[in-house]
Amino acid sequence: MNAVEYLKKYIEMRRVARVLEDRDDYSLDAGEMNPNIVVEMLKEDIQPDVVWEPFASQRSRLFTNMAWEHTHAMWVPYSLKSHNDFVRKADSTKTGPLDPIGGMLFHPTYFGSVPLCDDKRDVGYLSDRPEYMEALKATVELAKQQMKSGGLVCAVARDYRALGARIRLDYWFLEMFQDAGFELSDVWLSEPDVVLVFRRV
Hints:
alpha/beta
């Protein structure tokens, strides 16, 4: 499927996408996402039952607990800076998961938004689109190396304005994951975010 056909497929899937139930215990201003995205992700077939979160958030403890309670899945969060012992301190653009994973929650700092930590390696500091995308591609490749065919990715994106331009992060992710060998299998909506659900080919 060429890029134009793939984009058309995405647009149609988004048009009829399921809207996830919203929760009131998270903050978009703090760069958080609807925790029900994780609930939906854990309903999917994830083999092995290990999920890598390369860009861990303040909610990673909640996600870790949710994974264990729902499916006994292991949640593996990475962060450049964390005071929590369950989060591995690592640069996920350079260090991937140590063991095979069945899934990845991909929710990096959005391009042009406020960085979520003071570590200058945070992708949120990258204001050049090619540089930002190269960093994210490195993370995707690291995940792919530890993921078998059929592995699941939930990529959380948004259509927004930043740095004086419209940012179609959903289109950027769509192209990046297609180029990396992932197939779009579903789309969920959790306004203002959109979740692109991929399977590794």
